Amino acid sequence: MKSSIAIALLVSTLPVCAQDLEVLAAETRETVLPVVPEVVAAMQDAMAREGVAGAIPVCRDLAPKLVGKKREETGWVIRRVSLKTRNPERATPDAWEIVQLADFDRRAASGERPETLEKSEIVSVDGRPVLRYMKALPVSDVCLNCHGPAEGLDPELRRKLSETYPDDRAIGYVKGQIRGALTVKRPL
Prior knowledge:
Structural class: alpha+beta
Number of helices: 8
Largest sheet: 4 strands, antiparallel
Distance between the termini: 25 Å
Strand content: 15-25%
Radius of gyration: 19 Å
Order of helices and strands: HHHHEHHEEHHE
Number of strands: 4
Shape: globular
Strand order of the largest sheet: 1-4-3-2
CATH class: Alpha Beta
CATH topology: Beta-Lactamase
């Protein structure tokens, strides 16, 4: 009995093989990434009905609610983060996320397609294994309406953005740059 417990403990401490990591990453991807097109569709709808400024509540309120719903369904920590935050309280990356975002920027600048950039890794958090997963969110045409070069933003929109986000640093992007990422901490 003692030897089977010892073997089970030993096996549980062995590193996860690449195949297992890919299965975990695929499950995570399939679970959380459907939130992204939901947010984009809601943003496009709000812009069509109310103009660009009408989409501000989609990013500020609806996107976090959709992410929160996935958090509640899964028990995973799921967030949107960025190196240039619009809302520092919700979107400031931790140390692991900063490294991955910088790597995404480097890889995109080297010619990798931004929409393919992701990272998955098993790390130890408080002595327990956790899957860290991150998927880059590149700037698309719809994003440029609020995140593009400052000189191209409508003055009324800029005023509303500064009212809503007094510490906004999330402008000046061009299409294809990494705006941020969807990030997951999944206990194993």
